[in-house]
Every structure is written in C-alpha cells, then in structure tokens.
What we know:
The structure is a homodimer.
Chain A: E1 11-16, H1 20-28, E2 34-40, E3 44-46, H2 51-55, E4 65-67, H3 68-71, E5 78-82, E6 87-89, E7 94-97, E8 100-103, E9 106-109, E10 113-116, H4 133-152, H5 156-162, E11 164-168, H6 172-188, E12 202-206, H7 218-231, E13 233-236, E14 240-244, E15 248-253, E16 256-261, E17 264-267, E18 270-273, H8 276-284, E19 294-295, E20 301-302, E21 305-310, E22 315-316, H9 329-347, E23 362-367, E24 370-374, E25 379-381, H10 382-400, H11 404-416, H12 427-432, H13 441-447
Parallel strand pairs in A: 1-2, 1-9, 2-5, 9-21, 11-12, 11-17, 12-13, 19-22
Antiparallel strand pairs in A: 3-4, 6-7, 7-8, 10-18, 14-15, 15-16, 20-21, 23-24, 24-25
Amino acid sequence: MVNTGEKQSPHHVVIVGGGFGGLYAAKSLAGASVKVTLIDKRNFHLFQPLLYQVATGALSPADISSPLRSVLSKNKNTKVLLGEVNDIDPQAQKVFMGDEEIDYDSLILATGAKHSYFGKDDWEEFAPGLKTVEDAIQMRHRIFMAFEAAEKETDPEKRSRWLTFVIVGGGPTGVELAGAIAELAYRTLKEDFRNINTSETRVLLLEGLDRILPPFAAELSREAEISLSKLGVTVKPKALVTNIEDDIVTIKQGDEVTQIGAKTVLWAAGVKASPLGKVLAERTGVECDRAGRVIVEPDLSIKGYPNIFVIGDLAHFAHQNGKPLPGVAPVAMQQGEYVASVIKQKLNTQPLARFHYIDRGSLAVIGQNSAVVDLGFIKFTGFVAWLFWLLIHIYFLIEFDNKLLVMIQWGWNYFTHNRRARLITGKESLQNIASENSDNFYVKGKNTQAISV
Amino acid sequence: MVNTGEKQSPHHVVIVGGGFGGLYAAKSLAGASVKVTLIDKRNFHLFQPLLYQVATGALSPADISSPLRSVLSKNKNTKVLLGEVNDIDPQAQKVFMGDEEIDYDSLILATGAKHSYFGKDDWEEFAPGLKTVEDAIQMRHRIFMAFEAAEKETDPEKRSRWLTFVIVGGGPTGVELAGAIAELAYRTLKEDFRNINTSETRVLLLEGLDRILPPFAAELSREAEISLSKLGVTVKPKALVTNIEDDIVTIKQGDEVTQIGAKTVLWAAGVKASPLGKVLAERTGVECDRAGRVIVEPDLSIKGYPNIFVIGDLAHFAHQNGKPLPGVAPVAMQQGEYVASVIKQKLNTQPLARFHYIDRGSLAVIGQNSAVVDLGFIKFTGFVAWLFWLLIHIYFLIEFDNKLLVMIQWGWNYFTHNRRARLITGKESLQNIASENSDNFYVKGKNTQAISV
C-alpha cells in the first residue's frame, strides 16, 4: 500500500503484545502516518529482567511495571486495547478477541513466551516458574513462607527441607534467583527468627550442561560459580532433573542418582512460545520450531504473508549465523524497531534492509557487588560488572517511565541489606500454616488460588 | 506475679494482632523482664490509614507494610509467630491456633475490625470494603478495569455506568477515596484513552447523616464538601442506601427514592469487630457491644480476668465521656503502650493509673493540596492542612520502618499527577473483558478468586 497523499483511511498496524518487542514497535511508529492499535491482556508493560527482584522481596510489582496507556499517551495515533487475541484470519486481515474482531493492514505478533516443563507439566505445581507478576508473587509467597514454616517446625528433618531451596536452571534467571535467596537467608533475615538459624539454609542451583550461564564465555561461568559459592550457593552442573515431587527433587549426575529433600523448588529452566504461534501456523501454514516459535523470514515477516510480522520470544530468526537469536529483551527491542521501520519504508516504497541483530553483549547479576559482563571484545566480573549491570538496567527502566524510585530503593537496600517487599499475602493459604500439619499447605493454597498481592 | 529476682521462667505476654495496638504494645515491652510472643496471620504490619492510596494506584502494598519480624528483630525478648488464633481458654491461660496451643501469663487481644454491611452481606459482592491489602488490590482492579470497560463499551448508557463511581460512607476513608478517584479521572488518566473522555466520570459520595466527616466540627465538614465539589465529587448527605445490585444503587433521601446506575460501588460505611471478640465473650462471659467490640474495664482488662486485655478496634472503652472511643490508630497506639506499662507495673507491684485517651485531633485528606484538620483548639483547611496531614503520616510511617520512599513517591506524584501502581492483575478476570459481553465479568472474576498483586 502506497501513501499517495490522498485522503484515505490510514494504514492500520495492529500490535499484539506490550512487552519489549511490541512496545518498541509502537513507540517507533509514533510519528508515522499510520494508525496503531496495541493489544495486550495486561494494562501494563512488565520489565521482566527484574522480575526475580519481585520474587525475592526487593521490589514491588509496580516498581517494574509501566501502565501501557501512560507510556503511549503522547502517541496520538496509537490506541491501547485491553484484551487477549485468540485467533487470526490472515485472508480477511482480522484478529479476534473472543467475539470481537479487529481489521489490520499490517500485523505484528509479539506475545512472547512462558515457562515450559519439557512435557512434565505436573512439575509446575511443585516448581513454579517466573514469567508474570503473579508468578513472582507466588514465588515470593513460597520463599518467605518456607522460612515461616521452618520456624514452626520441630522435626529437624522436616525443618531442613523447609530450609532447602532448589533452583532448576543455571541461566541468568536461575543465577539471579539463587544469589538473591542466599543473600536473603544469610543476611536480610539473619536476626529475624528465634527458633531457626537462617544461615543453615541450603541454596542449590542445578544446571543440565557442564557449566552455568552457558551463553557466556567459559571463564565468566567459572567466575560466576566462584562468586555464587562465596555467597553460599551450591552449584551442581551436569545435573539432570528426573523427577519433582512435593518435597523431593531427584537428579541424575552422570550415573549417580541423588534425592534432595526440598520444599521450595523454583523453575528457571525452559521456555515455550505463547500459543498464538501455533494458531498462526494453523492459519498460514508457517512452520514453528520445537519450542513453538514461529520461523520468520529475513525481514521478520512470515512466508507468504509480507504484512504479518513475528518478533521477540515468539519468533525463531536464524538468518544471522544459523542459530536462532536468544529470547532476550535487546533482540525484541531491535526487532520491534526494525519492523516499525519496515512498515514505514513500505508505505514510502523505499528499499528494505534485512533484519540484523547487533549483539551488544550479555550480563547477569549474582549478588550485591557481583555480576558477570560479556561484551565480546571485553569481559569483566565483580564490582565493576555489578555497577555496569546496575547502570544498564536503570537506563532501560527510565526510558519510558521514570523509575527513579527503583534506583533509590536499590540504594536503600544496598546499605541496609533490607528487602522491603516481603509480604506474604493471599487469604486461604495463610491459615493453614497455623495447623501442625503444615506439610501440604502449598497444595491447599494452590487449589484455592490463594496467591496474591 | 511478682518479679522476685529469683531464677524463674519469665512472665509470658502473648499479643494477638500486629496492627497499631499490638505492635505498640510489643515495642513498649522491649526492655522489660518479660517474654513476648506476637501472633499475627500476616507477616507484616499494615499502615491502614494509607490503604486508600493502594486502592487508587498511588502506592504499592509494600510501601505501607513493614515486615513484623524486621520491625521487632532488635527486641530479643520477642518472638513473632505467623498464625491465626481461633480460640482461648482463660482458665488454663492458653490460646489456640488450630491444634497448636500457647500458654500465656498476660494476654493482649488486638485483632481489630473488618468492614460490615449491617446485615446486608450480599452487598459485599458489588460493593467491596477496604480493610486488607487484598481488599485494596480488588478495589484497584475494579476502579481501573471500569475505565477499560468504558473504553470498549459502545452503548452510551452502559458506558456511563462504567464511568460512575459511588462511594458509600462519608467518613475519612470515603472522603479520601472519592477525592482520589476524582483526581484520577480528571487528571491522571485524562490523556490515556481514545474513545472515552474521562472527564465525563461521575464520582458520588453518599453519607447517611446530614454532613460528611461527622467526627469533625460542622464548619470543617462544610469546607470538605466545598473542596470535594471543586474536585468534581457530588456529595449526597442524608442518603440512605436501601439496595445494591450489579449496576444499580438505590438510595433514599427523605421520601425521595433514587436509582443510580453505577458499575463501581465502594463501601466505606460500617465496621464490625473481629470474630475473636465473640469467642472471648463466650469463654469469659464478658459483654460485647452491637458492633462485636468487647466492653473493657478502665485498665483495658476484661471483667474477672485482670490478665486479659483488649485494645484497639476490638475494644469498647467508654470510661472517658460515656461514648466509646473511635476506631482510629492513635487510640490503638496509646492503648498498646498503656497495657504494656500496666503489665510492667504489675510485675513491680506499682500502683496503676486508669487508661486515659489523649485526643490530639482528627484529620482527613481530600485531594492534592486539600485536607481538613481539627485539633480542637484550632481548626484549619486547605494547603496548610494538607501539609500537616503529610507530615503526620510521614512521621508515623518512618517510626518503625524507614519509609522515605513513600515520601519520594508522593513528591513525584505531586509534580507529575501520575500514579504508578496502576496494575490490573489476576489471570482469570482479565480474559473476560475481551468478550463483548463484559457486563458481568466482576461476578466471574469473583468466582474464580482472580484478585491479586
């Protein structure tokens, strides 16, 4: 469609998903002569890289969320709709939210991914993952409730299970969670209990491969492991989880099978793409990879449909070096901006360049004063890496919403070792801890859907 | 029991409830030669006077909560227990949490109050109250979801119902809620929607008596009403609510019956004491008033049991001027401190003074730059009153936990008119808004317990 300058209904871009990909696409279309509709099932953008800080009581959900309407209020060509897209008609150029339908000229799908249990969906009950605000609140609930239950437990064996935390998956999220829980147990909560000694807490980090942080250079993985050990985390590489039950995790390292008694198991291992990818595949015949990601063309459109784009964690883009791009925020942001420019260029009949991801490096935080940074041309660890991590995150946090508060809160936590957001909330599950038979209150809690706040 | 200085098990004070009363009692017993156990079903103290700011998206729950263990971590004679006391044996001097029992020498009950619908419990579904963090999150959900639903609604009559907010009860909470919703609609959200004009929002404040803020002097009620009108709130005095349904509130003013079409009704009218009061009455024969509050002696103990004390919103203390003391934080704090000193004095066989409440005045905030303050000897309104309100709240907030952040957040909101904590969360209820038949999604949301975060 060519912008002829004549009076006509403007080109309508529908963006599904307000994560990094969708939001950057919308922001990049701000001044363009298009009409934009951003659809999300949430009214806020979530800064997922910091979700582990909500899960461990350092920040509140609102600290890492920005209302989508407020972020886009100045974009007068943009409308935000709260709703969940569950179907697409690529021939009629429509998306559906239940009975409601919306026409599009260009469609950008950016609905991301959720955690995956590699087919062992029954593990979810015992080992929650971390993708949404609700996930983080449930994790926070479990972590803090575990210390409360240990404080009440008189049987030493059961008490030790309450004080054992197993994190499955040694990627950045797993490393960050393990480090944060260790700091919590050995520092923040040290003076708070009377019956238990929180320094008896065990934090185990399991990784299936031979080292943690596999996307980083090997020397950084080693540095990270040393830093985690100093914090008190036991790192177990080459550890395959073969079973997760109520309070036992079974792992296999080589031929050795070990059972770990642990009440709190946190899942930071696999992800799978949002179900909208499969729907798109059914409607268009496009292929998905094993994780459900949509295989995209060099310009991020899909085969046969040059006006449908898939970006971020939902996309499988392997045109750079044969390997699909990783599911990280910078990929999604760059893809969002790229697709916005493709649409603008098409309207002006300009030639297109294919998408090229500029990898500026990887970073992961381990604990206070400790992080690993791999920028390719330079690698560094320790305090400087931690400062670098801090600055990068503050930069991106304040980009669309002034998150000065997060910075102040971090400053405060840094000097006091305190964590303010340690609320255990949700009506039903709390009452169960009062009973001596507290072993299975998570199960009860789960049935009554008592997670909250 | 006299402290003879001989080696013996120390006097055990059990405090039930970590609100203002219980926490001040515990803090006052810090250095005393007693053992203290504080039991609460939550792991945090909630600064209830600011709960309306969570309900209207200005603060996060953690901003007004302090972990009880952290507040009391320096009190080495004090133990915190997470649990709910559901029975008392005053003869055996025990309290029960399910099967668990705890012996006491002195007992302080401070479990507070919850909202009450004067026997019309079916109204709760349509008109939630504001006592807990979950209540505030549910209110926040309803308020922000109403604007989202209005944005989607094409029928003008239905849209107007989504944009009508009715607050029942013209006490401080009702006034604060009404003012905050008006500021939200007319200021914060002004630029955020494309189909609706949020300045068409109607905010109605209903009060059964002839003026709002009845505990204040009449001229302050008048000033508050003028300030609310300027903000855009319609105040309806002498308005009795006779029915609340899904989207209709029926009121009676004199002989006139009016039906108001409103999707969002918030309850700020009545409270009743926590059920532990009734349990105590059954076990000891002590009397309760109509609101379920325990009638206490001049020293806040109960008749026949000099070692059982009832304080705060759970207590009915009418020894000062015949009228029971109001259910406000200063009463609870002073009673907590008083009971702590009674217990210490008893142990030292010192004479006791009866409890005397020092009323330092009442204050309520109406909106930005506007509040009413009644100190008895002086009354003032407007900006100076608002500053005074701010200082008092900051003073008490930082007393046990450094809540510098709240101050900074307020500063930020003040200059930007923004409200950061505008998250709509909870999985199930959100999906329903996508369907055109969005009229009854609250009911669905309620059934699936989808409130959270």
